Amino acid sequence: MQTYVPVAGSIMSFEEQDRPREKMMRLGKSALNDAELMGILIGSGTFGENAINLAAKILASANNDFSELGRRTPKDLVKGFKGIGEAKAVAIVAALEIGRRRQFSDARRRERITCSRDIYEAVALSLIDLEYEEFHIILLNRASHIISKILLSKGGVAGVVVDAKMIFKAALEALASSIILCHNHPSGNLLPSQSDIDLTKKLQEGAKLLDMTVLDHVIVAKTGYFSFADEGKM
Fold first, then answer.
1. The sheet that has 224-227: what strands, in order across it?
2. CB–CB of 140/113 below 8 Å?
3. pLDDT in tens, 129-177
4. Rounded to whole angstroms, how far apart are CA atoms 72 and 58?
5. Is the dihedral of CA 76, 78, 81, 84 positive or negative?
6. pTM
7. How many CB atoms lie within 10 A of CB 90?
8. Collapsing DSSP states into helix, strand and coil, what is residue 179?
9. Closest to 122 in 3D by CA, of 141, 98, 142, 145
10. DSSP bridge pairs for 136
11. Helix, strand, or coil (residue 201)
């Protein structure tokens, strides 16, 4: 993130070459700092505070982290900042969501799983910003191409109930050769719990009886991901 130094006066009082829109047209998008980019979205500030200064305040409230800011709702922004009405709040949230989807657009086109990073990218868009746990499975054919991705269950902040019968039912109906387990840790802690470890072993043993393989169990968090296979726990 780029540091922004507050500037007095409205944006229209800036020299024309320093106004965000004109600056982007002249120098390109990379010439603008984060506050200037958000200032374009906001459009106008309040009495005594221009849009760029207001944008800088919003960014600072999220530790200058767009990922953290992306978890705010329009209501959060309207409530938290004078000068941010519903239309501006929706524009900010929409722009951040577009950026988030763009980050994983290549992953959505990827059909084959070759490593843990592929798994992470296949499910991160669905899991990374949740404030509660979800358990997903990815079903693969013999060539490791994705047959389907299935949300199996939702839970609370500290855990989720997983029914092994539902996992194997879905895998059998899809004629899957292998299964990948995925869930998120809203706390940001990537390390598996003992229940995560026990569940993985239980499902591995059950899959063998059905001539299937549990290839990996990936835990997703805001800080990255943990792969049981990468860590030698499969």
1. 146-154, 134-140, 178-184, 213-221, 224-227
2. yes
3. 898 999 999 999 999 999 999 999 998 766 788 999 999 999 999 999 9
4. 11
5. positive
6. 0.59
7. 14
8. strand
9. 145
10. 151, 182
11. helix
